[in-house]
Design goal:
Elements: E1 4-7, E2 14-15, H1 17-30, H2 38-53, H3 60-74, H4 86-89, E3 96-97, E4 108-113, H5 117-121, E5 131-134, H6 135-138, H7 146-154, E6 162-166, H8 169-176, E7 182-186, E8 202-204
Parallel strand pairs: 1-4, 1-6, 4-5, 6-7, 7-8
Antiparallel strand pairs: 2-3
Helix pairs in contact: 1-2, 2-3
Length: 216
């Protein structure tokens, strides 16, 4: 039924929470405010990224800097500067795959990520993908469909033959479902679906759990 499996990267294939907390704790320490909860600070930063994904295209690095400035302002941090986001980007080589992520030779594989090419290149994915779709290559991001339209245009298969798996309801489902993509929500944190989000076709707790759907 499916000929191309596409995957979100960060949070779906890559176990990002440990690095997120480590990086943003370091950012807050260097900004002189180590008393702020690093996870809450990161989550606000990420929410601002999603807002900026819908705006005229900026690189992920530029969005990261802008969102960091907004996070500093929101949390009342006066000693922080936008360039501290480099502490986060410097840790991309330390990110690890989730242990349930295993390659399969039966399908063509694609990655679809709101990221710059160099940051994806610094991330250890473990194997080569047949199609790489980044925000930099598409000139846009997931939520408004730009990145998914790039996937569809370059997939060389019908939309119905693509199975996309991702962890972010506000980017993967919001961007992919209106275009007719079949979407698996990899809901690792067992969170509730927001009422504004188009429901996914399938929900799994991890990548390994979708293998029966593929007959593997």
């Amino acid at each position: 039924m499916y000929k191309l499996l596409s995957f979100d990267v960060y949070g779906t294939l890559i176990n990002t929470p440990p690095i997120n907390v480590k990086a943003f704790r370091l950012i807050l320490e260097q900004a002189g405010t180590s008393n702020i909860d690093a996870l809450a600070f990161y989550q606000f930063w990420e929410s601002r990224n999603i807002v900026h994904y819908r705006e005229p295209y900026r690189s992920y690095r530029e969005i990261g800097e802008l969102s960091l400035e907004e996070a500093f302002e929101n949390f009342g941090v006066v000693g922080g500067t936008a360039d501290l986001i480099e502490r986060y980007f410097e840790l991309f080589p330390e990110m690890q795959l989730y242990p349930d992520v295993l390659p399969t030779g039966r399908y063509r594989l694609a990655v679809v990520s709101n990221i710059d090419d160099d940051l994806l290149g610094a991330t250890r994915l473990g194997w080569e993908f047949d199609l790489v779709c980044t925000a930099e290559r598409a000139g846009g991001y997931k939520p408004d469909g730009t990145l998914f339209r790039y996937l569809i245009a370059n997939a060389e298969v019908a939309v119905s033959e693509i199975l996309h798996s991702g962890q972010s309801q506000f980017t993967d489902m919001v961007g992919g479902k209106p275009l007719g993509l079949t979407v698996c929500w990899i809901n690792r944190r067992s969170i509730d679906l927001h009422p504004s989000v188009p429901p996914p076709d399938h929900i799994f707790p991890d990548i390994r759990s979708l293998l029966p759907l593929l007959g593997i």
